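As a next step, the fold was encoded as tokens, giving this record:
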Amino acid sequence: MSERRVISSALTANEYRPVAVMPEVRVVKIGGQSIMDRGRAALFPILDEIIEARKRGIQVVVLAGGGTRARHIYTIASELDMPTGVIATLGKYIPMQNARMLQMLLAKHGGLFILPDDFEKLPLYMQMNTIPVMSGMPPFGYWEKHEAGSRIPPHRTDAGVFLSCEFLGVRRAIFIKDEDGLYTDDPKKNPSATHIPRITAKELAQRDLPDLVVERVVVEYLPRARWCKELQIVNGLKKGQVLAALQGQDVGTIVTV
């Protein structure tokens, strides 16, 4: 029997079983436009709840969104006919700046800024009782794919949170926004919009809502994920919502497979 056939037989006999690297970690994104751009009044209470969760023994990794400044970069670069990969590379610097600010605000509580190259050091950082903080932007850069009809990178900071969860083996990705989760319409524009407490990714795609509080690509990827099976969207402007989410409570909106 050839070596190739021996290896193939071994793989068949011992089915491939990927390892969940750090399944107990909570991966949470602080929205750029929804939270960071609002300043101290919105951000500080959220950081207090993250710190409290860490004191209670909950391991938290914080990822930062980009916000209005990132959208400004996307707009200008698109008008200049920059390729999608260049726009993604330019756009990564804003969530990185936000992550550095978050780290400094969390410094006395163990806040630690990390780059994508440091990702594999997370187990060590967690053992050191830190709160790792990083940009939510996935490191695709110049290799970001182009979508028909748009130059804007489809994988932005929401996608980065989802991919981080999938890599670590975390079941639920937590997104801190300025709304109670998903609605049938934009609640800021339509007061009669109805809150959606729980929905599947398939049902959400079928509804084809005009406005989503998370990137659509994340909803598309969810059914194909091996580990990350849920998205949780919580209102960071409501006291106690973030801590409840970090404790595993079903607050806000839950999107499942």
Observations:
- The chain has a mean pLDDT of 90.
- The chain has ten helices and ten strands.
- The domain at 20-256 is CATH 3.40.1160.10 (Carbamate kinase).
